[in-house]
Structures are given as C-alpha cells and as structure tokens.
Write a structure and sequence with these properties.
Layout lengths: L3 H16 L7 H8 L3 H13 L3 E4 L5 E4 L8 H9 L26 H19 L2 H11 L3
Antiparallel strand pairs: 1-2
Helix pairs in contact: 1-3, 1-4, 1-6
Length: 144
C-alpha cells in the first residue's frame, strides 16, 4: 500500500499540474483545496523540492509550481521520493538492492522470482502514468 504521505503528494502535484504554467500556488491554498494538513504538506513539498519535482517561489505572489513539465513526472517518480523503492523486497530493488539475509541462492529463489515479476509489472505501470495524463483525466471528469 502507498502511504498517506504519497497520496497527499500526488494530490498536491495534480493540483499544480492542472494549473499548468500559471502563477505559483500558495501552500495554504493547496492545503485547503486538497484537505491536507499544512505542516505535513510543507514537509512533503520540501522533500519534492530537493529532487526537483517542484520548485518554490519567494515573495508575496510566491508558492509552489512543478519543477519540470507534468508529462515528465511519473507516479513512480513521486512514490520513490515519498515511499522509497517500489520493490516489495530489497533483493529485487533497482535503487536499494540488498541480498536477503536468509537467502541461499538468489538465482534459484522462487520467492525472489515472483517478487521480481511483481516489481517489474508495478514499475512498468507507474512509470507509464504521469501527472499530465492524470490531470487531463481529472479535468475531463470535472473533478478539477
């Protein structure tokens, strides 16, 4: 399951994606519109800023905007920042690989093979979905 932090991050980013290249959105507006606790949102946006997914703007008209085009930000990108690797086990992780302590031989491990297939399928789906697609889908449904 994805964390509440990841859900909040995705909701905030979808709001920014729906706004397009318009003015930055203030944190208070994102928090209010998306029903996200402001302090939690601040921490999430700071983390996303460190990776370049969002950028902050100072001043009276300041706030947050996407750090790159919405089409270039996949759901996988966001989940990796908020929740860590997509893999269910470290032995199948691309970014945080570690051999399992109790594994005798990875090449024949049936558990690893199943988890590797799950990781590959999950990554393929989440990497193929981006914020631009999701925001367009929400606009068509009238949710944004």
């Amino acid at each position: 399951m994805i964390s509440q932090k990841a859900r909040y991050a995705l909701r905030a980013l979808l709001l920014l994606a729906a706004r397009g290249d318009s003015n930055p959105v203030q944190i208070s507006e994102i928090a209010e519109q998306e029903k996200i606790p402001r302090k939690f949102l601040e921490a999430i946006l700071l983390e996303l800023k460190k990776t370049g997914i969002v950028r902050s703007h100072r001043g009276r008209q300041g706030g947050y905007s996407l750090g790159k085009p919405a089409k270039d930000i996949s759901f996988a990108d966001v989940l990796r920042v908020t929740d860590g690797p997509l893999a269910l086990s470290p032995c199948v992780s691309v970014i945080a690989y570690r051999k399992c302590d109790d594994c005798f031989e990875e090449s024949i491990c049936a558990i690893r093979k199943a988890l590797l297939a799950a990781r590959d399928a999950t990554a393929q789906i989440l990497e193929s979905r981006n914020l631009a697609q999701a925001a367009a889908q929400l606009r068509r449904s009238g949710a944004l």
